[in-house]
Amino acid sequence: MNYPPHISEKDGHLYIGEHDTNVLAEKYGTPLYVTDEQRIRDNYQSYYDALKGYYDKVQVLYAAKANGNLAVMKIFASLGAGADIFSAGELHLALAAGMNPDYLLYNGSSKTTEDLSLALEKKIRVSLDSVDELRQLSAIAQDAGVTAEVSFRVNPAMEVPTHPKIATGLATSKFGIHAGEIVSAYQAAMDAENILPVGIHCHIGSQILEVAPFAKEAEVLISVASEITDIGVKLRFMDVGGGLGIPYHHDTDPVPTPAEYADAVMPVFLDGINSIGIKPEFWVEPGRFLMADSTVLLTRVNSVKQSHKKFVNVDAGFNLLARPAMYDSYHEVVVANKTGPDYADDAKRDVMTVTGPICETGDILAHDRLLPAVESGDLIAVLDTGAYGFSMSSQYNSRPRCAEVMVNGSQEGLMRRRESIIDIKQTMKDLPWQK
Ligand SMILES: Cc1ncc(COP(=O)(O)O)c(C=O)c1O
Ligand SMILES: N[C@@H](CCCC[NH3+])C(=O)O
């Protein structure tokens, strides 16, 4: 199987960076997420450089929902990124990581008045999702005696090649304001007290492996930019939302590069702004491309069962990696203590289904994979789990969440400790009538 450069096999073991995954699993226990810092930096640099090659006013806003660990946020802060934030928690983490508030955008289709007040208090721009939200923000800004800088999220009514649950710009999606209504929304913002519209925001969906939809999105945004410039909006940024997908099927998926993305999108953007006669910043909010392949989820084999098929029962399930159960997502799996030529012979391999410990039939991490003979105690690595892995985890079945480790060259360290049963119980309360 093809691996990204920070994943390798040595002496029968799977390595991440300079580290034997078996040694890390032994030291920190399983299940365990392990992330390679240098890979995050390299992914960021390739995205940023490709866009910057076209335009000097490029800003990356890391999509914090992909992985909100403070250690991860600090890496992006050190690289100069801001963040796409979707909650007060993500806002808090972005500021704690030292990100510049100028490059944070408070997104979301359902914000509370507390969220809107917090954004104003912290001087964070808000991406509005409805005219109702505009009215609420205007009232809060008037009370606070400040001006709120905003963008609207445009719904571009676009079908995109991805799982329907993560296609966010469909005409039927809950997000954004349709192109036909967007100019009147901006007019309402121009007319509203204590509101200054300064941006356009859009997001067509996630895990898209073609560049054409992003170019089409840029066309839609340019057309909106032209119309709202005509009514007097002074655009400071155009935010195109999330980034490229990644090849989860390592050997067969197409691998669109940031350079191809930039070649498709930037000419549309540049021609558009030149003909309108404006020079807004170009913002992009990648999450998956920056994080997904930086991380492996290590999970120990509890038992193997030959039923109507061969089940490999491991200690991580959809409590820790929801993607396969939620979107039928594919992740490569490797037996991390049985790699290399000794285990490559297909005759000695078997088709196996890797299942988690959760009390649901759908708790399957990987269906029907050809793997070397697996026994209890073996270590399985689930690849490409750095985006929407830990961040979507839960305590279902009252299972404490696992630890997260970061490696960086020869260094390694815990970036999140393992939870215990105390963490599960600590928010529960004794009811007075249940003494
Ligand atoms: C508004 C917004 N921005 C950015 C992202 C990040 O997308 P991706 O991880 O595909 O780059 C998402 C998630 O789909 C999103 O909803
Ligand atoms: N959570 C989704 C990505 C979309 C999230 C943000 N809109 C996934 O795991 O693929």
Automatic annotation (TrEMBL):
Pathway noted in the entry: Amino-acid biosynthesis; L-lysine biosynthesis via DAP pathway; L-lysine from DL-2,6-diaminopimelate: step 1/1
UniProt key word Lyase: yes
EC class of the enzyme, as a word: lyase
Domain of life: Archaea
UniProt: pyridoxal 5'-phosphate binding residues: 243, 285-288, 388
GO molecular function: diaminopimelate decarboxylase activity; pyridoxal phosphate binding
Cofactor section: pyridoxal 5'-phosphate
Catalytic residue list: 359 (proton donor)
Modified residues (N6-(pyridoxal phosphate)lysine): 65
Gene Ontology biological process: lysine biosynthetic process via diaminopimelate
Enzyme Commission designation: 4.1.1.20
Positions annotated to bind substrate: 288, 323, 327, 360, 388
Keyword Calcium carried by entry: no
Catalyzed reaction equations: meso-2,6-diaminopimelate + H(+) = L-lysine + CO2
Keyword terms of this UniProt record: Amino-acid biosynthesis, Decarboxylase, Lyase, Lysine biosynthesis, Pyridoxal phosphate
SUPFAM superfamilies linked to this entry: Alanine racemase C-terminal domain-like, PLP-binding barrel
Residues of the Orn/DAP/Arg decarboxylase 2 N-terminal domain: 40-292
Self-association state and partner proteins as the record states: Homodimer.
HAMAP family in the record: LysA
PANTHER family noted in UniProt: DIAMINOPIMELATE DECARBOXYLASE (PTHR43727), GROUP IV DECARBOXYLASE (PTHR43727:SF2)
Similarity-based family: Belongs to the Orn/Lys/Arg decarboxylase class-II family. LysA subfamily.
Biological role: Specifically catalyzes the decarboxylation of meso-diaminopimelate (meso-DAP) to L-lysine.
Protein name stated in the entry: Diaminopimelate decarboxylase
Species this protein is from: Methanogenium organophilum
